[in-house]
Amino acid sequence: MKMLAMSLLAMWFSLGAALAQIDTKATPETTALYRNLKKLSEEHILFGHQHATEYGHGWTGAGERSDVKSVTGSHPAVIGVDFMGLSGQPEDQIAKTAAALRKNVIDTYNRGGITTVAWHFANPASEGGFYWKDGVSKASMALIKPGGSHHEQYRQILKTIADFAHSVKGKDNTLAPMIFRPFHEFDGDWFWWGKGHTSKEDFIAVWRFTVSYLRDQLGVHNFIYAFSPDNKFTSEYEFLERYPGNEWVDMVGMDNYGDFGRDGKYNLEAGLKKLEIVSEYAQKHGKLAAFTETGLESIPNPAWWTETLLKTLKARKLQLAYVLVWRNDTKSPTHYYAPFPGQLSEADFVRFYHDPYTLFEKDLKDVYK
């Protein structure tokens, strides 16, 4: 019996070493989510949709609604939100934005779903918003890093995020874990934090400060930190060009629209190779992996879900925690990435939903335990 106990203990420590979570003070729910996502990724993938319950195709703010639920009967397992509104606005507007966002995150948590957070972060040192605008935007990563002219301003912005992280308490009075994905698609030039506007050294310095300040100074212990470039790499070396180090990242991912049908162009072999790079790196280093953004705008391909996305995901022994498609705009007749009732790919999406490999919110059981 004693030998068995020692063996089980050894297995537990081995699992702990394999799963290299970077916050040793993470809440029990956050640690449980981390471990459960890793376990689920061995046989399944969770489906996610950005802004799924905030608004959809032709509607907004409708309580328990989502376009995915209208088609399948279940919300996505992973719901994407954004910290975009927590800076760059008047204080009263930030408070209003935070209140709505808080309700969304808590509601998802109470249902047993998972929240992932993007950050379309308005440039703190210039006009121009989160996109890079020639002649307007400043290359601000160098300015917000420690010692930079706008570093104190950046610290204040992170305090607002920390206050939010401390506020999302569910019905059991525990904090909702969130997958936090700052500075995404950094290998492109369309955002002010992109590769063409900041050095590798400055990018890494800001990333490390962000994690350290939130975790070690502001006491945020319900974040899982995700690193997600766009699809511009073809090797592990290129994927890791701006990687801040294993001690600063919980999850590795990739955003990839270009290989999966954008503008009618498909290169599924290239997309699969990149997913393999992400998945294999995570397995080697005890990290989570995810397909952090993808999708086909307007979904004109009626079999895209099963013949493009699902077939690619199942083509190799990938271990990806989730795949997330982008948002369904409220007013645009063409800007949507998940089907709604009557949309061309609806029937195929139902087949995608019923495949045993994919998991939606209704399929999740005690991911925080």
Structure write-up:
This protein is an alpha/beta fold. The chain has one domain: TIM Barrel (Alpha-Beta Barrel), CATH 3.20.20. It is 37% helix and 13% strand. It has 11 helices and 11 strands. It has helices at 2-18, 28-40, 67-72, 91-111, 141-144, 151-165, 200-217, 236-239, 268-285, 304-313, 346-354; strands at residues 45-50, 55-56, 59-60, 78-82, 114-118, 178-181, 223-227, 251-255, 288-294, 322-325, 358-359. Strand 4, helix 4 (91-111) and strand 5 (114-118) form a beta-alpha-beta unit. Helix 10 (304-313) runs parallel beside helix 11. The model is unreliable at 1-17 (pLDDT under 50). The active site is at 185 (proton donor), 293 (nucleophile). Residues 28-362 form the GH26 domain. Residues 1-20 form the signal peptide. Keywords: Carbohydrate metabolism, Glycosidase, Hydrolase, Secreted, Signal.
Classify the secondary structure makeup into a structural class. Answer: alpha/beta
Low-confidence parts lasting 5 or more residues at pLDDT below 50? 1-17
| Rounded mean pLDDT score | 95
The CA-CA distance between the termini, in Å, is 27 Å
Family: Belongs to the glycosyl hydrolase 26 family.
Organism: Dyadobacter beijingensis
InterPro entries: GH (IPR017853), GH26_dom (IPR022790), Glyco_hydro_26 (IPR000805), MANB/E (IPR016714)
Pfam families: Glyco_hydro_26 (PF02156)
